[in-house]
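Table S2 (text version). Query chain:
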Amino acid sequence: MKCSFSIDALADSGAKSWRLLADREHWRTAVFAEPLQAGDLQLAADEDAAAWHGLRLRHDKEGLRVHDRPSRFDFLMRGVFSHAVLHRCSAAPIPDLQQMRDVVAAHDAGVPWLLYVNIAGQFAMLDTRTEPLIGNLRIAV
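Corresponding structure-token output:
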């Protein structure tokens, strides 16, 4: 399964959206989460995409620029924010019931685990005490 991430920016009203280009500086007007086009930035690793995900952007006469990363206590979340969008070149496999059983059996009881399906279509566990749930690009379901 081949997949990549693009970085899209979306205004808080949802009326405008943009896509980051391969030069990592310029943005083009786009429909949010549209298919990839030539010149769009494609990130293969979710760690690279996570660095761009959730940034607050400012719109000026020169285009969109990174402003900051909002704090945990920024409740209004107004403005333009970047989002990592997954693009698949092939279908994800159907998750396997036996693989889910094996993953659950391999982890210790008493830990607040989160069972999830990753972007590769496989079951995995996440320790909710140490790993972030919000904004985690590995979680598909």
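Notes on Table S2: The chain has a mean pLDDT of 87. The chain has two helices and eight strands.
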